[in-house]
Amino acid sequence: MKRSIVAAVLLLHCCCAVWSHAETVHLSAAASLTDVCKELIAAYSAKQKETKVLTNFGSSGALAKQIEQGAPADVFISASPEWTSYLADKQLAAPGSEKPFAGNSLVFVGSATTAALSMEQLNTLKRIAIGNPQNVPAGKYAKQALEKVGMYAALEQEKKFVLTEDVRHALMYAEHGEADGAFVYKTDALLTKNAKVLFTVDAALHDKITYPMLLTAAGAKNAAAKAFCDYLSGPEAKAVLEKHGFAANP
What we know:
Elements: H1 2-21, E1 23-30, H2 34-47, E2 51-58, H3 60-68, E3 75-77, H4 81-89, E4 99-103, E5 106-111, E6 128-131, H5 137-148, H6 152-157, E7 161-164, H7 167-175, E8 181-185, H8 186-189, E9 195-200, E10 210-215, H9 223-232, H10 235-243
Parallel strand pairs: 1-2, 1-3, 6-7, 6-8
Antiparallel strand pairs: 3-10, 4-10, 5-8, 5-9
Helix pairs in contact: 3-4
């Protein structure tokens, strides 16, 4: 009986030791980074078995506001500098921790049976999926491009836009034929088998697409978060980014 009690105590002690050494990193990242981040986390976790990375993917604006409202986040990767600046202004980012993570480009996709078209022909379509420009960087870049060519106001007035909560939902609308086409990132278009690129948006029509990364104020106190950030800036991460179609040196 005494031996059983001793064994149980030892087992509990060992479990507590393991739990005490386990480290958690909360990552909030733009929806367009979902697949590449999952691969990076798997590779990192294989080497750093004591670290568990928990993810939260969504539109950059929504994620930043969640962090502002107290959602757990150690590392934040935005699809636009606008939202890392937002956290910095709120004093929710670790000073000096922001660094470039990746770059991308904007394309317009439609169903596999849709004939190729140009931006100037978008007015011939009935429904155009676009991330809500207020929160979704891909939508903001698309709006900038359409405004540059003088089309945004007319398309909006004709109620042709289907606003989505993030870029992946815009892609889904095009894939399922619920919209005639959608503005998405090139990397999103590479993932789909049910849609094709109809045209690439001229990069001169919108702000440069960069994904900045930072430690939050909470993350600055988390050694595991700092180590994970270092990994995301390293050569292995850059190779994975390039494999997924991102620019690793934006």
